[in-house]
Design a protein that fits this description.
It is built from 11 helices and 8 strands. By secondary structure, the chain is an alpha/beta fold. The protein has one domain: TIM Barrel. The chain has an 8-stranded parallel beta barrel, surrounded by 6 helices. The structure holds phosphoenolpyruvate (PEP). The site of phosphoenolpyruvate (PEP) has 13 residues, from strand 8.
Length: about 260
Amino acid sequence: MKQSVKMIVGNWKMNGESAGLAEFEALAARLKSDPCRVDVAICPPATLIDRMRRIGGPAAIALGGQDCHAEPRGAYTGSISAELLVEAGCDLVIVGHSERRQMFEETDAAVSAKTAGALRAGLTPIICVGETLAQREAGEAASVVRGQILGSLHDDLTGRDWALAYEPVWAIGTGLTPTLEQIAEIHAAARAAMVERLGEGGRIAPILYGGSVNAGNARDILAVAEVGGALVGGASLKATDFLAIIHAAELALVAADAQG
Ligand code: PEP
């Protein structure tokens, strides 16, 4: 992906079917005719990656997997390796999404191994962390996120070959979001933990915010310190909604430029 300050990544989860390709086509056409400074990616179901690549996605939109196996190949029925994602046309992969941590019992150690697998294959891993509502209400949000970062990162990570995504579990798909102050607080804590884990290399990778980002709240969220972009679920499925978020990211970049 080209280097820029903001990264907007759509996670289609287990949605899209073939009809979703029309939305992707509209998004790709718009970004080709009207290029922007924002790094845009879509992580569709694996079955759509190659079809999106043929539509011409990578020219304007990077493609990503939603998960990968840590091993490059083998008898792992139902799994997909980072190498297979690269062959299909991916540049990046989400690892450690809370839905995988919760429903598939993925541990920090498993996420770290997947991160290493992604780097081995040349993919940019987006490593997800975030607290549950019970953990937030117990005042543990920052310490939970720190623990997940220390456990899920991998020594092979360097500068900007990866991104972190802070996604409070209670904000995903609920329409709820933390306050801007809460987002700033956890992003600052996440940055400190990234540096604690990786040293100076931990200062560079962007930290995305994820959890009910939409056209209405994106501009404010993307203007928060240390928010380097957004991981977007529901609002990435419709081209017009996703384009509005990309536009908000561009406006945040322009505002940052104006402030010097
Ligand atoms: C997600 O699942 O990563 C996500 C952020 O979903 P939503 O935007 O729908 O809350």
